[in-house]
Amino acid sequence: MDFAIAGAAAVGACFFTNPLEVLKTRMQLQGELRSKGEHAVHYKNVVHAAYVVAKNDGALALQKGLVPALWVQLIMNGMRLGTFQFGENRGYVTDKSGNLVFYKSVLVGGTGGVIGQFFASPFFLVKTHLQAQAAQAIAVGYQHNHEGTWNAFRKIFVKNGFKGLFRGAGASVPRAFVGSTSQLTSFKYSKEFLNKYEYFQGRPLLTSFCGSMVGGIAISVMMTPFDLIMTRLYNQPVDANGKGLLYSNYVDCVIKIFKTEGFSAFYKGVGPMYLRLGPHTVLCLVFWDELKMLYDKFWPQ
């Protein structure tokens, strides 16, 4: 039930935040392996990007990749949050007094994040491809031209086999570990602090809201460079053997981005990243806490 509650909370949040994921993906792919001033700037900022996408592809394009995105949330966050809750219920992340232990929180949160991200990787791959697809006038990054979620799975499987569905999964490991630990640890410590000093005594929803705001900032700052690298590796074209045509591996991707686009490139899309992860973190973690309270109320142990 810990995993089901966590997955339901993440899926609910995804409906509201997927448009921002589309904008973030486009901005991360814009100017790929091009120096500043040597590429067209289709997306100037988040608001402009939303306008450009809606104008050229239609308003519904802001929900591109929603189906695989929902599966990503169900699998990834169901496993990530569920694992953390499982560990918390059994005292694996706290001391004998019930206080959060930093290294235990990092290990449990990070492990759950890595496992969840790995199994969700095929859906994340397809989601990235679909969200990158755009009208030719505003296209950025490689265009895979899939006709839908299941068509994308079929094309990838036919071309590169089962292994091709997990292309880029290795790149998701550092992203998942850093993102999961920064979000959950900051969220839990914030709630612990607020409860200790009784800032919002008797108002658990407000406590969850404030804690999740801190978690949203932490995950956005910490995860953006890793997320950009993963997006580039997922979206790059591959040959018949599944080998990347732009980046040969994770390290090669980091070096090429730094040499051609500079250090600031690793924070491309940080604006939409926060605008997406901020609300998503708030909604997901608040839904998570509320669903757990409802479960405890109607199905007490």
> How many separate helices?
9
The shape, in one word, is globular
- What portion of residues is helical? over 70%
Main β-sheet description: none
List SSEs in N-to-C order: HHHHHHHHH
What share of residues are in beta strands? under 5%
Please give the alpha-carbon distance between the first and last residues: 12 Å
Unreliable sequence segments: none
SS-based class:
mainly alpha
CA radius of gyration: 19 Å
Number of strands: 0
Overall mean confidence score, pLDDT? 87
Describe the structure.
The chain is an all-alpha fold and about 300 residues long. Helices cover about 70% and strands about 0% of the residues. It contains nine helices and no strands. The two termini are about 10 Å apart. The mean pLDDT is about 85.
Task: Give the secondary structure arrangement, pairings included.
Layout: H1 2-29, H2 46-57, H3 66-89, H4 102-132, H5 149-165, H6 169-196, H7 204-235, H8 250-261, H9 270-298
Helix pairs in contact: 1-2, 1-3, 1-9, 3-4, 4-5, 4-6, 6-7, 7-9
